[in-house]
Amino acid sequence: MARDYVTGPGERQDGEVVFVESSVGPMNLKSIIARVTQLPAADGKGPLKAYGAVWHNDSRNIKGVEVQLDDGEWQPATLAEEPRAPHSWIFFHIDLGEIPAGKHTLVSRAIDTDGTIQPAAEDDEIALKKTYWEAYQQWPREIDLQV
């Protein structure tokens, strides 16, 4: 750290994990679900809506956010129109429909205009890191829905 702000990610090379030093650079693509709201329940199911934020080194390069409920299909979230300034976050929301009572897991992932997808915690890009100066993996959020 005396000469540079570095991290030590691992890379798979010929079946072996090799750790390489690399400089910390521009902010990585990331998103997170920050809030989940529930409307009045009907028929033992609660209508849910999730809200969050997405950000990148240059937020103009954010293509979208997808949300997954309980390892189901990824669903597109709606990005807010404002604010849309370089280097700032963009808010998103998604209606998840009527969900049965019980424990559920929600996770978001960001996608940029180059097709880069925010990595999951088990992806090599995150799992093989020695340091976590910037934690940018997908962050699952567990909820316990009471209807």
Principal-axes shape call: globular
CATH topology of one domain: Immunoglobulin-like
Number of helices: 1
CATH architecture of one domain: Sandwich
Strand order of the largest sheet: 5-6-10-9
Contiguous runs where pLDDT drops below 50 for at least 5 residues: none
Q: What is this structure, in a nutshell?
A:
The chain has 147 residues and is mostly beta strands. It has a domain at 27-120 and 136-141: Immunoglobulin-like (Sandwich). The protein has one helix at 124-127, and strands at residues 6-7, 10-13, 16-19, 22-23, 30-38, 45-55, 62-69, 75-76, 78-79, 90-100, 102-112, 141-145.
Protein described:
- The chain has 147 residues and is mainly beta.
- The chain has a domain at 27-120 and 136-141: Immunoglobulin-like (Sandwich), CATH 2.60.40.
- It is built from one helix and twelve strands.
- A hairpin with a 5-residue loop joins strand 7 and strand 8 (75-76).
- The radius of gyration is 18 Å and the shape is globular.
- The chain starts with 5 loop residues before the first strand and ends with a strand.
- The mean pLDDT is 85.
